[in-house]
């Protein structure tokens, strides 16, 4: 035989109740069904009591809403011909409720005893209606009030049941039932017949008590999810159902906040060795999760749960060291006030004892301990208790955890990498549970980061927040889409675009955005960069990366704040690196302090591995003597193609036609862009330079610089041909070649038109390639050379993508 329980979520509406009845019908060996109140009704009844006792007549509105809701369910579930009896019963039961509430209103008092009586109506109404609906759908069922069977002490609100006395009555009552018993969950009665409740979520316990009494072969708890998941699915989208778990694991998980099952439920089932299966009313064919049972598992970690709000209290002082009995006094004082302690830690220095309690008990706990240690505090042997609030507990649970060294390391690495500060750590001596206390604000991020690290170590999700959907931005998104499959299968990476913005629109969604442009995103709204950054920070998602694909000067000013929130920054935007030296160093400092990444490989030579190579050399202990480079594709093309017979102006024009120059070629010829790249290289080597300390030769002759338009610029440049032809002849005569050479050495950084000899590594440069040569202690006779196309959206976007992958790996 089995006994089934359907929670409020399974009996929330007439449709759900019909599904529930079908699930019951499909279980031929079902001996009893326990039901909760319709979803939300218990909360409404609590509100009813609170309003009435506060003298607020608003309670009558709640009463009429409750009546409407139950009447509507009856109308939808039961045929008109047979409906009358049920309606009459419900009406008279609601009258009883009204009388009780009226009493509370008059007396302005709702004792725990009265509250339990008021709450009992939720389950009584639902069970009666469901029993009637079963009969209406053609199978015999009978309404059973659990108060006839389950006996408890008089601890109203959270009563303790008497197993033997209850079992006897349960067996007798179930046996006597005409048809399938539909039993009220949650409620019970004292020995003298007063109504009690088993605590919020207590219907789970009801079915366990009944199952144990009847010694059934399985207890089934039906709800709205596929079973106990590896984490709360509302907070962790990648959570998945656990097929088997031990009673102890279920107890630990539910104790630490997994709302799915009421913790005391485990005890009666465990005592009798009855497995509990959790199933989904909306997906009945899915096997669900089994707690207990014979199946063994190899899994190391079972699940992660959390408590959203706890208070953390610290008792500290030198007077504690070596004094036996301090902790006894702390916890006895708490026990005397019936304050339950969720977690305890004590440093081996015996200087502090810390523990967590629910926030509504914090003040009482503080007072109790301060009072207990009144004399020690007066003599300054102990400090008054310190209370910290707005904290959460995250717990990793698993029976096999004790066999896996380094698991704690994985948890703390995941937390650390995401900037989550750990306030306290506790590991149960059973090693079934590692718990950490963190800021409540970080709870969701921490759950996801730890879940990813422990369960999906094979697939890591990173969240990309992209600013700028111009040529580079959209090319990046295309490349991301194209490489999605190989990133997942080969590198176990899921790079999700979670936010995108241009100057007009922005779109942000935790579930990801598929559009290539903000303007085309379904989620789009008017853009505001500050809002975009704030929403990103508010999401507080693990592995977040801010990607700036703009040339904006204002955006880099926000990098510091972003890095400080443990979000890595990847950008091809040179502005952040060429501003003041202080700004540059500040960013580097935050990057180091926060242990995040600030990557900008594409700022110099687009996709060419220049900054990475330089950093690798420095990191591996090499010493950089000098760097020489051609850092502009335009200038490279110009001097690779400028030869006798064609003027320099004509060569520039040709380059422009081929798309190698800026709209105004003077932006290339001025050397400013090269100067900036050079500044970045110099700073990477460690030179403390400002932009004006980089010497840059401007190739635009004064008359050409003064030209008002581009055509006029070409005319003026043509008139100055002799400047360039003279240089060219000088180069030719010496058997050398012209290059616009950028160099860093001996503390100086300069860029100028130079002649190089045939033995120089740049002599063979062709097309519009960039080239960089590093002369170092290790590469002293022949330099280390990096060469290739140093511009273009494809290679730049690919370089940005490579940086993103570097962040995640
Ligand atoms: P019922 O009304 O059926 O008793 P509850 O609302 O009490 O249902 O519990 C089910 C809910 O518990 C699920 O909808 C889910 O959102 C939440 N939950 C929290 N943690 C977990 C977890 N680890 N596994 C599954 N569900 C969880
Ligand atoms: N209806 C009760 C509650 O909401 C009991 C239950 O649903 O388990 O707490
Ligand atoms: Mg529940």
How would you describe the overall organization of this protein?
The protein is of the alpha/beta class. It has an 8-stranded mixed β-sheet with strand order 3-5-2-1-8-10-11-9, with helices on both faces. Strands 21-20-19-18-22-23-24 form a 7-stranded mixed β-sheet, sandwiched between helices. Strands 13-14-12-15-17-16 form a 6-stranded antiparallel β-sheet. Helix 22 (648-657) packs antiparallel against helix 26. The chain is elongated, with a radius of gyration of 36 Å. The relative contact order is 0.06. Adenosine-5'-diphosphate binds at residues 7-10, 36, 201, 223-225, 228-229, 231-234, 258-260, 303, 305.
Layout: helices, strands, pairs:
Blueprint: E1 2-6, H1 14-25, E2 30-35, H2 41-53, H3 59-77, H4 80-107, H5 112-136, E3 141-144, E4 151-152, H6 163-176, E5 180-184, E6 187-190, E7 195-197, H7 203-214, E8 218-223, E9 244-245, H8 247-255, H9 266-272, E10 276-280, E11 289-291, E12 303-316, H10 326-336, E13 343-346, E14 352-357, H11 362-372, H12 374-378, E15 386-397, H13 407-417, E16 422-427, E17 433-439, H14 443-455, E18 460-467, H15 471-491, E19 493-501, E20 505-508, E21 525-526, H16 529-539, E22 544-548, H17 559-564, E23 568-570, H18 575-578, H19 581-594, E24 598-599, H20 611-619, E25 624-630, H21 633-641, H22 648-657, H23 666-669, H24 672-685, E26 695-696, H25 702-705, H26 710-719, H27 721-733, E27 737-745, E28 748-756, E29 769-776, E30 784-789, H28 793-808
Parallel strand pairs: 1-2, 1-8, 2-5, 3-5, 4-6, 8-10, 9-11, 18-19, 18-22, 22-23, 23-24, 26-28
Antiparallel strand pairs: 6-7, 10-11, 12-14, 12-15, 13-14, 15-17, 16-17, 19-20, 20-21, 25-27, 25-29, 27-28, 29-30
Helix pairs in contact: 1-3, 2-3, 2-4, 2-5, 3-4, 3-5, 4-5, 6-7, 7-9, 10-11, 13-14, 15-28, 21-22, 22-26
Bound molecules: adenosine-5'-diphosphate, aspartic acid and magnesium ion (MG).
């Amino acid at each position: 035989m089995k006994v089934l329980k359907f929670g409020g979520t399974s009996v929330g509406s007439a449709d759900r109740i019909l599904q529930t009845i079908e699930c019951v019908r499909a279980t031929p060996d079902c001996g009893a069904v326990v039901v909760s109140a319709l979803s939300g009704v218990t909360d409404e009844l609590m509100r009813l009591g609170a309003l009435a006792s506060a003298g607020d007549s608003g309670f009558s509105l709640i009463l009429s809403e409750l009546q409407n809701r139950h009447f509507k369910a009856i109308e939808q579930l039961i045929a008109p011909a047979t409906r009358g009896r049920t309606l009459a019963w419900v009406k008279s039961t609601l009258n009883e409720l009204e009388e009780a509430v009226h009493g509370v209103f008059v007396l302005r008092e709702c004792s725990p005893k009265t509250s339990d009586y008021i709450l009992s109506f939720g389950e009584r109404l639902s069970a009666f209606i469901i029993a009637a609906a079963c009969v209406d759908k053609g199978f015999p069922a009978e309404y059973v009030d659990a108060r006839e069977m389950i006996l408890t002490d008089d601890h109203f609100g959270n009563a303790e049941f008497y197993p033997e006395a209850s079992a006897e009555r349960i067996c007798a009552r179930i046996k006597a039932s005409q048809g399938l018993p539909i039993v009220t969950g949650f409620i019970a009665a004292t020995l003298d017949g007063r109504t009690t409740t088993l605590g919020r979520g207590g219907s789970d316990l009801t079915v366990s008590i009944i199952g144990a009494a009847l010694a059934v072969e399985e207890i089934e708890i039906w709800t709205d999810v596929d079973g106990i998941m590896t984490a709360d699915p509302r907070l962790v989208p990648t959570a998945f159902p656990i097929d088997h778990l031990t009673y102890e694991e279920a107890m630990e998980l539910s104790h630490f906040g997994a709302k799915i099952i009421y913790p005391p439920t485990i005890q009666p089932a465990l005592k009798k060795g009855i497995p509990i299966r959790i199933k989904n009313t909306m997906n009945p064919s899915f096997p669900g999760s089994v707690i207990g049972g014979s199946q063994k598992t190899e899994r190391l970690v079972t699940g992660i749960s959390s408590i959203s709000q706890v208070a953390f209290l610290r008792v500290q002082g030198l007077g504690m060291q070596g004094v036996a009995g301090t902790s006894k006094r702390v916890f006895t004082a708490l026990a005397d006030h019936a304050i339950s302690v969720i977690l305890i830690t004590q440093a081996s220095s015996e200087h502090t004892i810390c523990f967590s309690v629910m926030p509504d008990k914090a003040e009482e706990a503080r007072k109790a301990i301060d009072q207990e240690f009144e004399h020690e505090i007066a003599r300054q042997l102990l400090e008054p208790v310190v209370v910290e609030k707005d904290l959460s507990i995250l717990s990793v649970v698993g029976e096999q955890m004790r066999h896996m060294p380094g698991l704690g390391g994985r948890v703390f690495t995941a937390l650390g990498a995401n900037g989550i500060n750990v306030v306290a750590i506790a590991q149960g001596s059973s090693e079934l549970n590692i718990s950490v206390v963190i800021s409540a604000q970080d709870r969701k991020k921490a759950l996801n980061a730890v879940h990813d690290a422990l369960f999906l170590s094979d697939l890591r999700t990173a969240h990309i927040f992209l600013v700028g959907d111009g040529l580079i931005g959209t090319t990046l998104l295309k490349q991301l889409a194209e490489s999605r499959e190989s990133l997942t299968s080969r590198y176990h990476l899921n790079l999700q675009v979670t936010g995108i913005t241009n100057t007009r629109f922005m779109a942000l969604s935790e579930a990801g955005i598929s559009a290539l442009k903000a303007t085309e995103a379904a989620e789009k709204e008017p853009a505001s960069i500050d809002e975009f950054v704030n929403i990103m920070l508010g999401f507080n998602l693990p592995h977040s990366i801010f990607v700036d694909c703009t040339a904006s000067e204002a955006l880099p000013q926000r990098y510091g704040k972003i890095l400080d929130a443990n979000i890595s920054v990847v950008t091809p935007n040179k502005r952040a690196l060429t501003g003041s030296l202080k700004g540059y160093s500040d960013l580097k400092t935050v990057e180091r302090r926060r242990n995040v990444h600030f990557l900008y490989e594409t700022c110099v030579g687009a996709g060419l591995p220049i900054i990475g190579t330089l950093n690798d050399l420095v990191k591996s202990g090499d010493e950089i003597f000098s760097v020489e480079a051609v850092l502009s594709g335009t200038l490279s093309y110009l001097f690779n193609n400028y030869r006798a017979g064609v003027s320099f102006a004509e060569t520039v024009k040709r380059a422009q036609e081929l798309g190698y120059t800026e709209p105004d070629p003077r932006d290339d010829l001025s050397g400013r862009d090269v100067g900036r790249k050079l500044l970045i290289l110099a700073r990477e080597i460690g030179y403390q330079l400002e932009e004006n300390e980089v010497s840059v030769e401007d190739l635009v002759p004064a008359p050409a610089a003064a030209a008002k338009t581009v055509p006029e610029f070409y005319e003026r440049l043509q008139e100055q041909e002799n400047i360039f032809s003279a240089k060219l002849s000088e180069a030719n005569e010496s058997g050398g070649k012209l290059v616009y050479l950028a160099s860093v050495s001996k503390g100086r950084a300069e860029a100028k038109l130079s002649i190089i000899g045939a033995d120089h590594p740049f002599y063979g440069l062709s097309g519009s390639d960039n080239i960089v040569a590093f002369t170092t202690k290790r590469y002293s006779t022949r330099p280390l050379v990096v060469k290739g196309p140093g511009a273009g959206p494809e290679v730049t976007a690919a370089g940005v993508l490579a940086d993103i992958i570097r962040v995640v790996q």
